[in-house]
Design goal:
This protein is about 40% helix and about 25% strand. It is an alpha/beta fold. A hairpin with a 5-residue loop joins strand 9 (about 215-225) and strand 10.
Amino acid sequence: MKQLNVGVIGCGHIAQQVHIPNYIENSKSNLEAVCDANEDVVNLIAKKYNIKNVFTDYQELLKSGLVEAVSVCVPTSLHSKVVVDAARCGIHTFCEKPLALNINEADKMLATASNNNINFAVGFNLRFLPNHIKAKEYLDKGKIGRPIFARAEIITSGPYEPKVGEGFYESEAKKRIGCLFDAGAHIAYLLIWMLGEPLEVSASLSTYKEGVEVDDHAAVTAKFQNEVLGSIQVAWSHLPDYRAVENSRILEIVGTEGILQSDCLGPSLSFYNTTSLTSRIKGIVKLTPGKFDPKIPFEALAWSYKQEIDDFLESIVKKREPTVSGEEGRKALRFILAAYEANRSQSIINLK
């Protein structure tokens, strides 16, 4: 199989933890180049992974002819410009979430990608977790009847984890990119994928950590298609033991005939159906799709990152649309932006 020559633009936490190692490990790709404005950082990474081509100006990388595809891992405020420039060079692009700062930027990215016939993927790795895929399958097959209520909650360390650091929320503060924009985008996308786009949105955002200028906890309510009501709760909170908040990472859908509870970060799914003999005998049944050990933290999550990178590469090789396309990323962005507007105006935003 021909390997695709790829590059990574922006060498921060997500690039170092996800994109760079997964491109190196994937048989479909050859990590040809890395780029970061910080020369010391990019040189250290190049040395660590034995990467030949190093850039501090992404435009030089795009015009070098070295790569056929890139991952864009720069701050969200720079996503639109880098993606548009890559698309104009005919380079397939994987963009980390959230897609952009606003809908106008997102639309420009989508239009440029389409006009230049490139594959454009967005980094919603939770979409690839087997437990969420199974939950979606059960939902589509009517195994809990008609959905009536959904709840998605996720508490993560985010930038409050020391190895991510203050630089994240300090650099993004002026652009108001807080936990709802960052972590909330993940579960907003999951709800849209499961239930369809929201019709109405309301929200309350707040900040508890001193010195932080962006929201670090938020609550959102929404009405989806077919009168399904949903809620999102999200927060940054770095507690020493990850198990302290493991019950606060859940996607739950209640239906007229049962309930689904899917671990937001994997790997398990709980299911109950009123007409199921198994459910009547055992109650809620817990499943773990795939070969994951629920006792091993984040094993499934790491696998989902591998899958999203592989899906992007495979979409290029097989000339198909990525599973999570730019248009899918736009839907999640629209939901999150509506929540911010609802909080600002203290009103219900109508998205019909």
